[in-house]
Amino acid sequence: MERAAEYYIQQICGLRITGRRVRTGLQKIDLSAVNVSLDSRLWEMGAYILIECKNWSGKAGIEVIRSLVHICAYKGNRTVFLFAANGVTKAAGKEILRAALNQCFILCFTKQELLELKDAYECRQLLDRKWEQLLDRREEGTLL
Question: Residue 135: left (phi > 0), alpha (psi -120 to 50), or beta?
């Protein structure tokens, strides 16, 4: 899954992989990327993006999301790309929304979504769509 995530990131103009198996205190993050883009949409995501990969047979749960939120706070960044082969549980989805309300943005990509991509343009479209969906969910969450 790490190789798939790295390949995906390489398709996004303006993102560069800068670290592999990065240690953050007692935690480890699979990949990190720096944002070298002049694209304002990408800059909304911040200068430094953490990338976590879970090639599990089941869905990633709430404990994964809480760990990522903790790492974001520790590292001082705002965006994580979570490559979870089979997505996340319903509880994890709620935790992603809670994190977004607190300015920590976790975008989840599944194995199936990655397999459907044909080129760099579609990779960028998927990223933009995930970002917009999360921002929309956050807006709806603040209205409740």
Answer: alpha
